[in-house]
Amino acid sequence: MTRYVAYYRVSTRRQGESGLGLEAQMSAVRAHVGHAPLVAEFTEVESGKVNARPQLEAAIRTASLYGATLVIAKLDRLSRNAAFLLSLRDSGVDFVCADMPNANRLTVGILAVVAEAEREAISARTKAALDAAKARGTRLGGDRGNLATVRALGNVNSAKARSAAAAAHALRLAPLLADLEADGVRSASGIARALNEKGLKTPRGRQWTAVQVKAVRDRLAVR
Fold first, then answer.
1. Mean of the pLDDT values across residues 129-155?
2. Are residues 152 and 91 in the same domain?
3. I want to staple 188 with a disulfide (CB 3.0 to 4.6 A). Which of 13, 65, 182, 210 is the partner?
4. Which residues form a coiled coil (predicted)?
5. CA-CA-CA-CA torsion sign (20, 23, 24, 26)
6. Distance CA 188, CA 127 (A)
7. How confident is the model at residue 42 (pLDDT cuts 50, 70, 90)?
8. pLDDT for res 83
9. Which residues of 181-193 are buried (b: 16+ CB within 10 A; e: fewer)?
10. Domains contained in the chain, number
11. Annotated catalytic, 11?
12. Of 91, 111, 131, which residue sits at a domain end?
């Protein structure tokens, strides 16, 4: 059965405190998911003009962690926000709207085309400026002739990318590990067993072991 993570947004703190608009969104989401598990709910109290969406980021991380589908009540309130649309499109999580059941990552990608068109226009202008600078004799770029240096730098960047991905996964797990420890599950083997029972996988899609749990704890300890 599909699992869901819900994301709601209200535009003012008064709406957030009073529930105005929020209750309708919750009702729409719960009607859409029916009896399917709703593993988490996140509410953003923010203006639509502000691109920073910490609760959206948390919702996406949680959906990714559980392999769940992100669900919102109404797309029309958010469709003008390019940052929101691109976050959804690039998140890698499945996505659905209660008011537009056929909307998905593809739909969101289409809606983001307008925003991307402007980015491409900026890129084209930048390239034209660089071409003009090159024509004037300005030296562009770095040392591309030293292939050994370039290769070594690529290896370092690859290792950094893998390390960053592992650190990000550890951060997504941190709240769940804290909850398990608060419930008295403190041993690495006990936590591994609990994660497996919840249907969670390691970054490589495997079952958890005590060794992998210890590695996550070590990463969190050095933050």
1. 61
2. no
3. 210
4. none
5. positive
6. 52
7. very high
8. 66
9. eeeebeebeebbb
10. 2
11. yes
12. 111
Give the pLDDT band (50/70/90) at residue 39: very high
Residues 9 and 78 in one domain: yes
Boundary residue ending a domain (83, 111, 139) = 111
pLDDT of residue 17: 47
Query: Considering the chain, what is the average pLDDT of its residues?
Result: 76
Q: In this structure, is residue 141 part of a structural domain?
A: no
Burial of residue 53 (number of CB atoms within 10 Å: 0-12, 13-18, 19+): buried
Pair type for strands 38-45 and 4-10: parallel
Does residue 169 share a domain with residue 95? no
Same domain? For 186 and 92 the reply is no
The parent domain of residue 166 ranges over 147-221
CA 30/CA 33 separation, integer angstroms: 5
Paired tokens of 6: 């819900």
pLDDT value for 96:
85
Best mean pLDDT range from 66-75, 152-161, 199-208: 66-75
Let me know whether 8 and 97 are in one domain: yes
C-alpha to C-alpha distance for 25 and 30, rounded to whole angstroms: 9
142 part of a folded domain: no
- Could you tell me if 9 and 80 lie in one domain? yes
Q: Report residue 40 as tokens.
A: 């988490």
Residue 186 lies in a domain: yes
| Interatomic CA distance for residues 116 and 126, integer angstroms | 15
Residue from 11, 64, 79, 189 carrying the catalytic annotation: 11
**pLDDT band at residue 53 under the 50/70/90 scheme:** confident
Q: Is 222 helix (H, G, I), strand (E, B) or coil?
A: coil
